[in-house]
Write a structure and sequence with these properties.
Helix content is about 20%, strand content about 35%. It is an alpha/beta fold. It folds into two domains: about 1-130, Rossmann fold (3-Layer(aba) Sandwich), CATH 3.40.50; about 135-205, Thiamin pyrophosphokinase, thiamin-binding domain (Jelly Rolls), CATH 2.60.120. The chain has a ten-stranded mixed sheet, with helices on both faces. A four-stranded antiparallel sheet has the order 8-13-10-11, with no helix packed on it. The longest helix is centred in the middle third of the chain and has 14 residues, at about 105-120.
């Protein structure tokens, strides 16, 4: 079952909402409702403490009779986590997370780390107007170019060993560390590329610019 989680980071291009919102179970985290105002895409639920929803957003929720799950502002989990729990309860196994990056780097990083927690449970990716973010560990991964120019491997373990095919700078069991990183801004040359992680864990980030 496909799911869409729309967080309350930077507003996203409506094309992304159209692409991922039409056939998915949608849960919106708090101020993420701004992405839906003025569209005919209606979330199945909105969750959060409602501290970042403007009048237009509140009207959109009321007019479309969207289910609401409200939490106090002082809590030990984020609105995005609350939205994620609902999606998991619904049986979602293929999740796209939009509007999860932005000016709050603490939220951006915590949202990225959610991908690690989801890795053994469901397929998941964070997407914004310029990037796609995946969590990876030992395994083989294929990525379509689809308008993206760069691809980076960012380790979060002490070391990450990987090999590539279809990139400008090919690697064969290259070992990178947190510092110096060494895996940033490779280029996708073909329609798709393959990255095999031999050991370690980290993020794969596709970027347009």
């Amino acid at each position: 079952m496909k799911g869409l989680l729309v967080s309350s980071g930077n507003k996203i291009n409506k094309e992304l909402l159209e692409k991922y919102g039409r056939d998915s179970f949608i849960v919106c985290a708090d101020g993420g409702i701004k992405n839906f105002v003025g569209t005919d895409i209606i979330p199945d639920a909105v969750v959060g403490d409602f501290d970042s929803i403007d009048k237009e957003g509140l009207k959109f929720i009321k007019d479309n009779k969207i289910a609401v799950e409200k939490y106090p502002s002082e809590k030990d989990f984020t609105d995005t986590e609350a939205a994620l729990n609902i999606l998991l309860e619904q049986g979602v196994d293929d999740l796209v997370i939009l509007s999860a990056t932005g000016t709050r780097m603490d939220h951006t990083l915590s949202n990225m780390l959610l991908l690690e927690g989801l890795y053994t449970k469901i397929k998941s990716v964070i997407i914004d107007d310029n990037n796609e973010i995946y969590y990876v560990k030992k395994g083989v991964y294929s990525y379509a170019k689809n308008g993206f120019k760069y691809i980076s491997v960012i380790p979060i373990s002490e070391e990450l060993e990987y090999s590539t095919k279809g990139l400008k700078y090919e690697t064969n069991h290259l070992i990178i560390k947190k510092y110096p990183i060494g895996g940033v801004s490779n280029e996708i040359l073909k329609d798709s590329c393959t990255i095999e992680v031999h050991r370690g864990e980290g993020f794969i980030i596709k970027s347009k610019d």
